[in-house]
Amino acid sequence: MSGSVLLRTWSQSARNDGGSTLGPAHVVGATVIDGSGCDPSNLDITIENGRITQLGASSAHGERLDAEGLTMTPGLIDAHVHLGLSSPIQPHFSFRISAAEIAADIFATAGATLDAGFTTVRDTGGIDGGVVTAIAKGKVRGPRVLSCGPVQCQIGGHGYYGAEWEPTELWSSHHIPGLCALSMMAGNADELRHNVREAFRRGASFLKLCVTGGVVGAHDRLTDTQFTVEEIAVAVQEAAARNTYVTVHAHNNEGIRNAVEAGVRCVEHGTGLDESTAALMAARDVALVPTFAVVEQLLHDIAGAGLDESTRDRAKGTRERMTKALAAAKHAGVRIGLGSDLIGPAQDRRGRELSLRAALETPMEALVAATRTNAEILGLSGQVGVIAPGAQADLVLWNGNPLKEPELFSDPTNAVLVIQAGRIVKDLR
């Protein structure tokens, strides 16, 4: 049986049985990059009940997929996405887009994320629990989603996009329950504790706080430091009570150090990270998730994201500082993941983040960051992000070798076959 016929057979099977997992089945002939950082090898992969059961030749019965000439990687992981910001930003938050359009944009982005080879994502603010549920139930196409729900922000801080005249208490009216909820405002530790408990009630699997200003900001600056150590520690305490963690949006060193002192486990962006702060992060085992793709987006396509030119000015110089921060973090031994942070409708080339990182490190380092390391950061180590027995059968077959041509990651058409938990979810062969 030819590979193309087999692919049709698998896809039809998935449709006919309501999305049941496939197998036993064997993917043979591909060059395998397993996500561990080891050199590529030629291994057959056996899949059964949605998981990888064996590496190497197998005599067990089952269908065979001939992947000769293709390169296999684990399903990619994006540790910083905003599915809920899939509509143009300013119209979205000024009530100029209907809930139906916002939903359509979110679900289109979820499908495009899967098509780019990303089988797992961590949503760092913007969606409400209904989106996670709809994708998990298979009602719409999308990756496995871990979500913080609404971001936790201080009153008037990063994450608040209401008009200056609008009372803070009206901000929640911008939420669409079950669909999108960008942020919750807190004026003190007690209010923050209430808000994080509400986020968990609505399905959050971790927490995110904004502890500095941001590039896409309405009322703040990158140099602003937000929330006190004592306030951040409240969120850390509430997360620990649920066996999970806090990550923080942070650009400047003072905000990062406050967050690390309070006990957070991850820092997003880290644009101004210096050597001493990186050393502190390494000593406390705090991970870093740089986000280069969004900077490129803001410098070259402000209109596409639904933002004005002032945002482009704020983004200038960010890539250079983030590049220095990446080097400082590597030198200090910080665990470094990978996130795209794309916003607006143009989120179909999420793999651009790997191409950008490959130019600053190596293609293998970028791939490991987007697979094994991100799985560790998300608390899914050994379950996703690796090609190993017992792991979820999340696999991507690439038309070419992205270790030799990392630009392949940038174009989703190069991901010719995507398998998620043993199901074929994309097939271009």
TrEMBL record:
<dbReference type="InterPro" id="IPR006680">
    <property type="entry name" value="Amidohydro-rel"/>
</dbReference>
<dbReference type="GO" id="GO:0016810">
    <property type="term" value="F:hydrolase activity, acting on carbon-nitrogen (but not peptide) bonds"/>
</dbReference>
<dbReference type="Pfam" id="PF01979">
    <property type="entry name" value="Amidohydro_1"/>
</dbReference>
<protein>
    <submittedName>
        <fullName>Amidohydrolase family protein</fullName>
    </submittedName>
</protein>
<dbReference type="InterPro" id="IPR011059">
    <property type="entry name" value="Metal-dep_hydrolase_composite"/>
</dbReference>
<dbReference type="InterPro" id="IPR057744">
    <property type="entry name" value="OTAase-like"/>
</dbReference>
<dbReference type="InterPro" id="IPR051781">
    <property type="entry name" value="Metallo-dep_Hydrolase"/>
</dbReference>
<feature type="domain" description="Amidohydrolase-related">
    <location>
        <begin position="71"/>
        <end position="425"/>
    </location>
</feature>
<dbReference type="InterPro" id="IPR032466">
    <property type="entry name" value="Metal_Hydrolase"/>
</dbReference>
